[in-house]
Design brief:
Blueprint: H1 3-25, H2 36-49, H3 58-64, H4 80-101, H5 104-127, H6 131-137, H7 140-155, H8 162-192, H9 199-227
Helix pairs in contact: 1-2, 1-4, 2-4, 2-7, 4-5, 4-6, 5-9, 7-8, 8-9
Amino acid sequence: FSPGLLVVAGSFAAFRLLNRGLERLVPPPPSARRNRWKWRNIWTSLAHSALPDTHNLSPCRFYLHPELSDDLVGTHPPGAHSLVAVSVGYFLEDFVDMLCNQKLHQSWELLFHHSVVIICFGIAVLLHQYVGFALVALLVEINSIFLHLRQILLMANLVHTTCYRLNSLINLGTYVVFRIATLAWMARWLFLNRQNVPPAAYAVGTVGMAIMTPMNVILFYRLLRSDFFK
């Protein structure tokens, strides 16, 4: 039994409670009242992406711990294991939330995405290895802040505003840096270190990257088409 599982369970419960109370904290505008669960879901996701001393400080962790770049298997800074466990709890909560409130044909892509993340991060939590690799993956959450803000602005019917246009530009820029470039770096690291990674873990990592890369490229194309090529 891993203590990390307690952190996962606590995180799941905390995000579940947050989800239930968000409608009081951030009341939905009239344009979003027909889809209240989605409004709560996006704000919960934004809370996870913007957690203080976690994702926003991930680049600082690599600056303060340069050894991470050389060893993403057995090396990780203090608190990194708990951070990954908290994220597993969030992705589990979001998985359950979508499964209960959204039709499968509307959410299967995100459910599939979350399944891959839960498996990969879950291995890191249980084995206390590959935590550094998971920490690199969490850099994508920096972009998720602006991705979720975009959805909130859409639901609030604020598409034709300067705020939406500015967020679209930042969203696209951070998408390239923290999603596409990060995934490319992870794929390169995995390929160069394939002899140092056990076959089972290498297979999981390779399959995960093979799934995540095209999904993120497709989403990037959708964002370009929606916000800039209409």
